[in-house]
Amino acid sequence: MAEPGLDFNHRPKPPTPAEAINALIDAALVAENGTRPRREYLGGSRLGDPCARRLQYEFLDVPRDPETAFSGQTLRIFAVGHVFEDLAIGWLRRAGFDLRTR
Known about the structure:
By secondary structure, the chain is an all-alpha fold. The protein is built from three helices and no strands.
């Protein structure tokens, strides 16, 4: 009877609970982002973009290539940024600044 040898084949590891949860959250965020209406303006962060063609495509709402869509992880980062933006706006207003947003 032959003894089993060492198996050096790489097998995919099952996702950790955190990875599985993040994958579900990411899928939900990507799906939600696909249903969100497009903005009818270019945000202030677009001012520094040197590519006039990219800005024009964005302004005219030309469909993006599917492989350039935002990942779930990127959408989570954006969501956290929006929360912190609202927090900072509140702080500045309480400090006496007259902010005009949105």
